[in-house]
Design goal:
By secondary structure, the chain is α/β, with parallel strands linked by helices. Helices cover 28% and strands 17% of the residues. It has a four-stranded parallel β-sheet with strand order 5-2-1-6, covered by helices on one side. A hairpin with a 6-residue loop joins strand 3 and strand 4. Helix 3 crosses helix 4.
């Protein structure tokens, strides 16, 4: 008798909600933990080609830590679409104006760069304060590694 390999099915997946505080946490380490939960790598039935991850709510995004000189050396670039209009901000400026974007970009870089990765990123909710509107989902604290 052979053992069968179990493959997760999108219809059978029961999604859970987790909440994590970014207060005092290092950005890259936090982002890698979040990306693993969004992908579903913490589950025993992880399947790479199926979105079997859970929802993650990040609060206190404005209090995340950047190590070294990343706050002044690392830059966020974007183009407006007009010739010669390449814009940039340092991560220190980005943390003041859009702290949610700092965490979202770090997690996005750690997810697959495919349509499946974009679907996983939609399950990430980031808020700069300590309040979030997802209390009806009864989120649990993200387990520490």
């Amino acid at each position: 008798m052979q053992n069968k390999t179990l493959s997760a099915n999108a219809a059978d997946i029961e999604r859970r909600w987790f909440v994590v505080s970014a207060r005092g946490r290092v950005l890259g380490r936090l982002a890698s933990e979040i990306a693993a939960v969004l992908r579903g790598k913490h589950r025993p039935d992880f399947t790479p080609h199926v979105d079997c991850g859970d929802h993650v709510i990040v609060v206190d995004a404005d209090a995340v830590r950047l190590t070294g000189n990343k706050a002044v050396d690392k830059r966020h670039y974007w183009h407006t679409g007009y010739p010669g209009h390449l814009r940039s901000k340092t991560y220190a400026e980005l943390l003041e104006t859009e702290p949610e974007e700092v965490i979202r970009r770090a997690v996005k870089g750690m997810l697959p760069h495919t349509p499946l990765g974009r679907k996983m990123l939609r399950k990430l909710k980031v808020y700069s304060g300590s309040e979030h509107p997802h209390s009806a989902q009864q989120p649990e604290p993200l387990p520490e590694k």
